Amino acid sequence: MLRGEVVPGDGRGRVLGFPTANLRCHDGVLPDDGIYAVWVRIDDDPTPRAGTVSVGTNPTFAGERERRVEVHLHAVDVDLYGRTLAVELVAYLRPTLCFADADALIAQSVIDIADSDAALAR
């Protein structure tokens, strides 16, 4: 389980069609880099929402950067800045990869979301 406040990121996810909430984790302990299927709770709302999380440095986009937790909520469009997310990791989907370009990343993201939905349905 990860818990943290949503903070501004690069804004790249929204441009690519997969907006993400960058999470500043309170406990500082992160899972291994990779893509995960997750259930997400916003603030004190007990309703879990389906999501996909990326943990890592986003190697497709060059530059030195710290490891990040980026949460993509499926079929949810809500302003999350400053809100607290509780993220329950359900399944590890794949390792973090460096893609040749943004189009390859977008194509894989579509697959990741479908794989995440399938894992959450079990």
From TrEMBL:
Keywords: ATP-binding, Flavoprotein, FMN, Kinase, Nucleotide-binding, Transferase. Its EC number is 2.7.1.26. Residues 1-121 form the Riboflavin kinase domain. It holds the Pfam family Flavokinase. It comes from the Bacteria. GO terms for molecular function: kinase activity. InterPro entries: Riboflavin_kinase (IPR023468), Riboflavin_kinase_bac/euk (IPR015865), Riboflavin_kinase_dom_sf (IPR023465). It catalyses: riboflavin + ATP = FMN + ADP + H(+). PANTHER family: RIBOFLAVIN KINASE, RIBOFLAVIN KINASE/FMN ADENYLYLTRANSFERASE. This is riboflavin kinase. It comes from Microbacterium croceum.
